[in-house]
Amino acid sequence: MNRSGYSLIEVTMVLVILVALAPPLVGSATDLRRSFLLSRAREEAARLFAEARWVAVGEGGATVILNAVPAWGAVVSAVGDTTKFTELGEGGVSLRLSRGRANSRVRFGPLGLGLVSSQTLTFELGGEERRLVISSLGRVSRR
User: Fold this and answer.
1) How far, in Å, CA of 132 to CA of 142, rounded?
2) What is the CATH number of the domain that holds 138?
3) Which of 90, 91, 45, 93 is nearest to 65 (CA)?
């Protein structure tokens, strides 16, 4: 009699190996997700500043409004229209603004240049953080 298939011992050994390898894989996936969420929030904030510069040139000025709790940002044109709104706290990401502020406004003049002092936005999740530094001229630097 020719039986094909796997024995109970073989199946059990494969399951034991998979269970032994699972924790490192789950930990890596968690770290990767955290990194993705932080990078996504930082890039969404950088997009807000890029949008504000374009709107400022086209409409004579713009303002980026940032709020720490809950974390969100918006671009408002000189005439008062909101051109972009985005949630920055998706997935539990927290936003910390310069000098411990609860909210902040970054203005751009008609040439697309910033009209404020420099600011640092810090995105945090699970002990890891990413920074976005906005210079006084409105340039964005990732750190």
Assistant:
1) 5
2) 3.55.40.10
3) 45
